[in-house]
């Protein structure tokens, strides 16, 4: 989608520091971090939100979670803990209408 920030990052029309990439996903740093480590795991396929997933995409969501786990290890928050968050829709705090998973850690994330 032309006006989607994440699609433009994936297509390299907007610059971003890509920390991980494979055929299905990219991982970038959040530009407005809420924690010392705040990464976004983003599927390359444009899916608006969790509400727009279908059962055939269950493997993709599992891969997003496992990639977040690996990034938690790589960025040193796996031992102390981290938070994984999917925001769904505007009222759920989703700012960009492209499915993404937040990994936040490096401080106490308890609420």
Please give a structural write-up.
The chain has 111 residues and is an alpha+beta fold. The protein has a single domain (5-105), classed as HIT-like (HIT family, subunit A), CATH 3.30.428.10. Helices cover 21% and strands 23% of the residues. It has 2 helices and 5 strands; from the N terminus they run H-E-E-E-H-E-E. The chain has helices spanning 5-10, 58-74, and strands at residues 18-21, 25-29, 37-43, 82-85, 101-105. It has a 5-stranded antiparallel β-sheet with strand order 1-2-3-5-4, with helices on one face. A hairpin with a 7-residue loop joins strand 2 and strand 3. The longest helix has 17 residues, at 58-74. It starts with a helix and ends in a 6-residue tail after the last strand. 22% of the residues are buried.
Short description:
The protein is of the alpha+beta class and 111 residues long. The chain is built from 2 helices and 5 strands, in the order H-E-E-E-H-E-E.
